[in-house]
Structures are given as C-alpha cells and as structure tokens.
Amino acid sequence: MNVSSQKKLAAKVLKVGIGRVNISNEKDVGDAITRNDIRGLIAKGTIVKKAKKGSCKIPSKHRRSQKKKGRRSGKGSKKGASQTKKTNKRQWIEKVRPLRKMLRELRDSGKIERSDYRKLYSMVHGGAFRSKKHLLLHLKEKEIIKKKGAENEKKKDT
Predict the structure, then answer these.
(1) Which domain covers residue 124, as residue numbers?
(2) CA distances from 129 to 19, 28, 40, 108, 138 (A)
(3) What pTM does this model have?
(4) Do the beta carbons of residue 79 and residue 107 sit within 8 Å?
(5) Is 73:100 a contact under the CB 8 Å cutoff?
(6) What domain count does the chain have?
C-alpha cells in the first residue's frame, strides 16, 4: 500500500522531514486521511519520529592531531596560485641567492673583474636576471667573462 501522502502529513504534524518519519504498520496508516488521524497514530506509536543523526567527531579530532604534528601538509593539500604556496619573498630569496653565489665564484676564480662584479651584483639586486642561465647569457653577450686562453696571451705579450 502506498502511504506517501500519509508520510507527508505526518512529517508536517511532527515538524520534521519526510525521511525522519518511520511507519511501523502500513495497513493501519493507509486508512488515515486527516491530520487528527495521523495524530492518533503518533500517540499509539505506529508513526514515530526518527532520531537526528549526529556527526562523529573522532575523524576530525584525529585529523587535527595529525596536523598539529605537522602531517597532512604536502603539495596535494595546498590550493591556490604559486605565490600562495610559496611567498613572494621566499621565491625572491631562492632566485637571488644562487645568482649571488655564482657571481662570487666567478670573481674569486678571476673570470670577472671586481668592478664588473659590483655592477652585476646590483643588477641581480634590481631583478635583471631570471636565472643563472640568463646571467651567463648576459655575461657572454657583453663579453664580460674572461677566457683562460685570452688571459695567457695577454700575459705573454707583456
């Protein structure tokens, strides 16, 4: 027997959703037409209101404790653009430090002069170079890097 209309009426009387109405005996409920009939069946216990389902806190507590320990913070957990994952300052530091280190190595090995080193250092600070490769390309184009062979020839001439 279809008792969907009675279920709707019961839901309105009980002030709950249709899903929370539980009918134990459909034969008795099939005859109920009015709200008063439904109220009588509720009083008898034929129609019962189901208890609300609560949410279990155990998984969320576990998740919170894991996050406190530093877990669950990998790349897959992060959302947003690159600067939200890594701050602009951190990106800048990771770009500039290798460039400065490379310049220092070139100066110490004698491939570039101290005056050129100073100019290039300030250019790095100004954000002129994207990467080490870009810096090397600039050095080769402007012929700032000294070649070992050219150095030896100059020494022989003098």
Answers:
(1) 83-145
(2) 65, 84, 84, 21, 9
(3) 0.50
(4) no
(5) no
(6) 2
